[in-house]
Amino acid sequence: METKHTKSELLYIEEHRSCQNYMTTIETGFKYLEFAKNAAFEEDNTTKNYLLFFLKGDFTISCNQFHNKLFHAGEMILIPRSSRLKGFAETDSSLLSMFFDIPAENCDKLILQSLSNVCNNIKYDFSPIKIRYPLTLFLEVLTHCIKNGMSCAHLHGLMQREFFFLLRGFYEKQEIAALFHPIIGKEVDFKDFVMHNHTKVDNIEQLISLSNMGRSCFFIKFNEVFGMTAKQWMLKQKNQRILEKMTEPGVCIKDIIEELGFDSQGNFNRYCKQHFGCTPKQLIEQCQATNQTS
What we know:
The chain folds into two domains: about 20-185, Sandwich (Jelly Rolls); about 190-294, Homeodomain-like (Arc Repressor Mutant, subunit A). It is about 45% helix and about 20% strand. It is built from 13 helices and nine strands. The strands form two sheets. A five-stranded antiparallel beta sheet has the order 1-8-3-6-9. Strands 2-7-4-5 form a four-stranded antiparallel beta sheet, with no helix packed on it. The longest helix is centred in the middle third of the chain and has 18 residues, at about 155-170. InterPro entries: Homeodomain-like_sf, HTH_AraC, MarA-like. One of its GO terms (molecular function) is sequence-specific DNA binding. This is Helix-turn-helix transcriptional regulator.
């Protein structure tokens, strides 16, 4: 039986909007966004995981240590929680964004946990995964519903579950692991807790306090999930943040010192020599040169 694509509008829209489950603000679910050419967007500390489905046009996006990556219609990429995100539309463009903490269904959560060993063999480089059938049809239907004003919690919850269902059915484990690499771990809940809270604290002891776990239990679980000690991981995040700031055009050492909480320029100089083997000025020159050639 041949089917035809016909334009249709949501019936009884006022009844739909008066439902107590209608979502005027999307906290967990989907958003359809359109951008004019050269329109920019930025978020310094993403509060959710964002899965971006590029529907039309081209986008240049920087996320954490990955700078000015070009994405095209028909691709999807994950922006993990607590990321620094900058982007702009190269052309008139549109995308669909899925906001979520961790998958709502236990089976979906278990799938991500089971892929932790697959992730060990992947060198993550913020590369997209292709959108293909039947996901193309799923996104077409979802976009049509949203554009016509259908935005109840039931729709968002149902479609998020359907997305993971289709992903498990029609994408290889290697592809799923590559897409969700930043949030996959042996214990997804614990990894999500760390990713959500590590930017809110000044040290590991404060993070342990927020976890409501014993110190020994926390350190053991951290090592299991992240493959390194909590101290090593926190230091790695701090160093990565310094490198990210160094690549920003027009950045000055004073701004970095203030933003990252160093006591003095002398202290920051010693830190850079110890961890990067050069002075802050030399590090800026290296990072700017690398960013221009990448």
